[in-house]
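Consider a concrete sample entry:
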Amino acid sequence: MKSKREFTEIAKRLLGKRTGLRSPQLIHPQREWIVGLLVAIVVFGLAAAWSAHMYLAHKSKTVQVSIDPADEVVVYREAMVQSALEYFAEREQAFNTLYAEMAQEVLVPEPEPILETASTTEVEVPTELGAGSIEEEVVPATDTEAEAAGSGNLPETVVVE
């Protein structure tokens, strides 16, 4: 039986303050790398050997599937086909009537009248670009120019200061 003193020493070892590992031989980086690589190589080799064994075991086996045309009997249900054709013919008639009603209700938009406007716009340009301000003025069209307005060719006058 252990004495009280032995129990206290065990408790001090378990709960006591440790400054580091007692044996520096517990950690050895080169040895750890070698062991890790050897374990990885062994696992890879075992997986390759198992795969090769399974391949060779099943290499000579063939799969044969025989399809007998007598097993696949197609039943033609004339009544079902006829009812489907009637249903789709009714739907086609309903669609055509709705489409004809919709085509009659289409409205043609009226063309917008061309309005003559005149405006002046002033834009400030930073001085580092080399210009002060730009002013644009749109001159209303005359009678001869109004005919050209239909083609979208309105004359504009641009004044730059």
